[in-house]
Amino acid sequence: MQAQVVRVPIAPMHMINAYLVIGDGGVVIVDAGLPGSAPRFEQALARHGKRFADVRLIVVTHAHVDHAGAAARLRELTGAAILAHRADRPFYTQAEPVRYCPTGPFGRLFKASGVANAAYDGFEADIELTGDDHFPLHRFGVAGTVRYTPGHTSGSLSVHLESRDMLVSDLVSSGILLGGIIRLGSPKRPPFEDDPRLVARQLDALIAAGGERFHVGHGATLTTDRIRRHIRMLERLPHRSASK
Hints:
The protein has helices spanning 38-47, 65-68, 71-78, 89-92, 105-113, 196-208, 224-235, and strands spanning 4-11, 16-23, 26-30, 55-59, 81-85, 127-129, 134-136, 144-148, 157-161, 165-169, 173-174, 187-188, 213-216, 222-223. By secondary structure, it is of the alpha/beta class. It has a single domain, classed as Metallo-beta-lactamase, Chain A. Strand 8 and strand 9 form a beta hairpin. The model has no long low-confidence stretch (mean pLDDT 95).
C-alpha cells in the first residue's frame, strides 16, 4: 500500500503545514512545527487511528523555527529519532542564530520583527546527513527517501515518496505573505531563500525523479505544471547568498 500524506495544520488557512507520512510499517513526521505544536500532531495521529508510539522517525527539513520548533518535544513524546542535515546544525542546536535572505518586503519585515529568530528547544540530530546523502525510509515503515535539496537553506531536505508525492517544505510556497490564506494554487517564493537558482535545480530534479504532487510548508499542494512555471521564474533571478 502506498504511503498516505496527512497535513498537520500548525497555523490556520494553510499558513504553516507539517506532515505525517503513514506507511505500512510506521509513521514518519516531516517537520515539527512551532514550539508547542505537539498537541496538533497528537490530534492528527488520532484522526487516523495512530498514537505517538506509532511514530518511528522525525524529519526536520530545515532549522527555521516553524519547522524545527517542536522537534525536541516530539522526540520526547514519541521516542523517535530526529533526522536532519549537518549543514543546518549550528541553527537547530541553537549555537548560532539562523541566517535569513529575504525574498521581498514581507520577508524583510518579518526578519526585522525578530519573530523568525525566536528561540526553541535546540537538539542534536540522532541521524545527521552529510553532503549529498540520500536516506531510505523503508526501515521506518515508509516507501520513500529523504533527499538533500539545498537552496532554501544550506541544509534543506525533501522527502521523495514512491507514490510520487514530494514533501518539499519551503523550496516553494503558495498563497500570499507567509503562504496560504488565498491563491493557494499559485506558487511563490517563501519569505526567505538562500539561492533561487539552486532551488530551481532541486525542483527540476524532483520532477525528473517522478514528482507529481508537491506538498509545501506554507500553502497548498502544487502540481508539476505549477512547479515548472515556478522553476522558469526562479531561473531568471540572480544568485543570492544567505546573510545574517
